[in-house]
Amino acid sequence: MMTYQEARAYFEEIAGRGSVLGLENMNRLMEAMGHPERTLRVVHIAGTNGKGSVCSMLSSILREAGFKVGLFTSPYIVEYNERIQINNKNIPNDELAEIVTYIRPFADAMEDRPTEFELNTAIGMVYFARHSCDIVVLEVGMGGEFDSTNIIDPPLVAVLAHIGLDHTKELGHTVEEIAATKSKIIKEGCRAVIYAQGDNILEVIRKRCEEVGAEMSVSEPEKLERMSIDLDRQIFYHPDFGSLAVALIGDYQRENLAVVLKVVQVLKTMGIKIPGIAVSNGLETVRWPGRFEVIGRRPTFIVDGAHNPQGMDA
Q1: In what helix (H) or strand (E) does residue 295 lie, and over which residues does it extend?
Q2: What are the residues facing 246 on neighbouring strands?
Q3: What secondary structure letter does DSSP report for 92?
Q4: CB burial class (10 A; 0-12, 13-18, 19+) of residue 78?
Q5: Pairing state between β 89-90 and 225-229
Q6: What is the arrangement of strands in the sheet containing 242-246, beginning at the earlier edge strand?
Q7: Residue 245 burial (CB count, 10 A)
Q8: Taking the CA of residue 206 as centre, how many other CA atoms within 13 Å lie in the half-sphere pointing to its CB?
Q9: How many CB atoms are located within 10 Å of the residue 30 CB?
């Protein structure tokens, strides 16, 4: 079996391929391994900004509701293993090395070897399947239609966070083109939850929902009244959820929270039990490092990984 260091060296070896859009490689790799992704129940989350915050809040709530929750995100901030978690714990070094050892013969036998992100996605799918996760919160890497995470069968819910101009070379030169690409995570048999945004974007997504027969719900940030905000938390009132203390600060989190609460409501209509106390506890204890994170008080020192103009503006 490979060691953790050898597994990381293997990542470095294949990292030079960069990002390759398309699902052909992922299909071949998953088929060779018996399609572990088909055993998973997934909430699939795409978007330009805010999808990571939505992932962190939703996974925290589901964990508080008693589910074994897989979480797949990117990029990592401190440790490579952060990308793949179960119940807020990173995949252990030895298990990551063991899964890479298992996957490598399949990957090396392919004419076009997987990219680093495709390998990451495959590791996550195998890890979550082996541990029989109840629900997986799966963040798209880039775009949607051709992102390697879109290898999954129809998710329980497809979520689209805020959409803006980013990766225009790969995804399109207008927000409408980008929205059309990202909306392809919406598939027949799933529900869709959409961040409340411009009518031009909502119309593109609504068209996709009509094409595949997916019921679409739009978030309702106007229902969230902010009662207070400081460097520790912000408190909101929602008519259906009551008072909510949220550990993620930043004025923009109101809109992301509205998406999360709409996903919770949709999941509950599907028979997934999420008590109110799980919502409040999950939001109060959520952590999302490197995103408007206060790391010093005297003086106040905040770090944030905004990677595009709209992120900087927010």
Answers
A1: strand 293-297
A2: 234
A3: P
A4: exposed
A5: unpaired
A6: 225-229, 234-238, 242-246
A7: 16
A8: 10
A9: 23
Alpha-carbon gap, residue 40 to 125, rounded angstroms? 8
Each residue's pLDDT tens digit, 125-181: 999 999 999 999 999 987 788 899 999 999 999 999 998 765 545 554 688 888 999
Contact 7, 97 (CB under 8 A): yes
Mean pLDDT of all residues belonging to the chain: 91
Per-residue tokens: 181: 């690409």
How far apart are alpha carbons 191 and 49 in whole angstroms?
A: 21
Is 186 in contact with 152 (CB distance < 8 Å)?
Answer: no
Contacts of residue 240, defined as CB under 8 A and 6 or more positions apart, other chains included, come to 223, 261, 265
16 to 13, 68, 96, 115: CA distances (angstroms): 7, 34, 21, 8
- Interatomic CA distance for residues 143 and 183, integer angstroms: 9
Q: What is the 3-state secondary structure (H, E, C) of 269-288?
A: HCCCCCCHHHHHHHHHHCCC
Give me the count of residues in the chain: 314
Residues 6+ apart with CB under 8 A from 215: 191, 192, 209
Q: Give the dihedral sign, CA 265/269/273/275.
A: positive
- Helices 199-212 and 175-182, interaxial angle, to 10°? 30
**Left if phi > 0, otherwise alpha if psi is -120 to 50, otherwise beta: which for 206?**
alpha
pLDDT tens track for 62-121: 999 999 999 999 888 888 899 999 999 999 999 999 999 999 999 999 988 888 899 999
Return the structure tokens found at 154: 């129809």
Q: Please confirm whether the linkage preceding 154 is cis (ω < 30° from 0).
A: no
By three-state DSSP, how is residue 296 classified?
strand
Q: What are phi and psi for residue 4, nearest 5 degrees?
A: -60, -40
